[in-house]
Description:
Mean pLDDT: 86
Amino acid sequence: xxxxxxxxxxxxxxxxxxxxxxxxxxxxxxxxxxxxxxxxxxxxxxxxxxxxxxxxxxxxxxxxxxxxxxxxxxxxxxxxxxxxxxxxxxxxxxxxxxxxxxxxxxxxxxxxxxxxxxxxxxxxxxxxxxxxxxxxxxxxxxxxxxxxxxxxxxxxxxxx
Length: 160
């Protein structure tokens, strides 16, 4: 009986250690179809305004160097709302950090623009999802961030 109890205790210890070693591991999304993900986010019901895919002006509006981006897709609202969906795949980790900074600057710019134009949009802007995961950078302003988070989780992103 003591041998069986000892064996069970050892097995439980191994299982606990195995489970604990995976707790701190972060998974980073890889090989995401940027255009499909951005489209799915925009179509998920989290937006109240009509959204237009506008990659032609996005990099200049965000102040992002084309060399920093390997792929991206950006949707803008009609400007009646601050809603926006920007998904970037950076050309590397340093580029991703620069893109993240540009997204934070974009958020600040939107707050300044909307605080006198449509002040009710400022809370939405302040609740934006701005994140970097590996080489991916996201800036998402929507009317329902929990719906957006569900889509992002499907693609392997963990949103706080």
